[in-house]
Amino acid sequence: MAENIPPNAPTDIKRQIAYKCNIKELNKGVFVKRQGWESNYVMTDFGDFSRVNIIGVIVAKEDNVLTIEDGTGQITARTFNDLYKVMEINIGDLVLVIARPREFNNQLYLALEIIKKIDNKGWINYRKKELLLIKRIRNVELLKDSKSTANEPEIVENVSTLNSKERMINFIKQLDSGSGASIDDIMTVSKIKNAEDIIQDMLLKGEVYEVKAGKIKLM
Predict the structure, then answer these.
(1) Could you give the number of structural domains in the chain?
(2) How far apart are CA 96 and CA 86, in angstroms?
(3) Higher confidence at residue 80 or residue 159?
(4) Residue 124 in domain
(5) pLDDT per residue over 186-208, tens digit each?
(6) Listed residue (31, 21, 26, 27) closest to 147, CA to CA
(7) Which sign, positive or negative, has the C-alpha torsion 88, 90, 93, 99?
(8) Is residue 3 a part of any domain in this protein?
């Protein structure tokens, strides 16, 4: 069945990669909402996932809602209009799922695109070995702590540019695990007014430098 995509949508909307991941990393990630045609995604220790590829066992089923377990955690998966996709899926089945992470009432779930039964249970061990090869790029728990701190009530009118810059320096230090701090991560968690301008000013003054595109380090 063809995807229901509006005619004026971006032409590459069908070609997003379904990243392999485990449920634990997905559940502890940070869900990020984007504007317009940009896809929402989950920020995890191993990357930003707007579309995922998961192998797990069905441990519960109710109408259009499935609960999937992969040995690291559980997550619910839903289909809204295409009930035929789950009709032949039963509790105990090992399945491969392609889905998009979504959030409702601060609860993460998967919007099903594809679900297939897997007969060979050796695939779940093979997937575990595949995931061990993926490199960690950040610490999401640190991001959550930083986000929580950034969301504490403050009197914005009394925050000087200097204080904002000092806070920016602290965020860069916290988010730099050795290979630089992602500018996107800084912007997401800092909530500092004019954060982009402050970063640009620090780059021009040589107070930070760009390790590679989108990543900066303090001098």
Answers:
(1) 2
(2) 12
(3) 80
(4) yes
(5) 887 777 777 888 888 787 777 88
(6) 31
(7) positive
(8) no
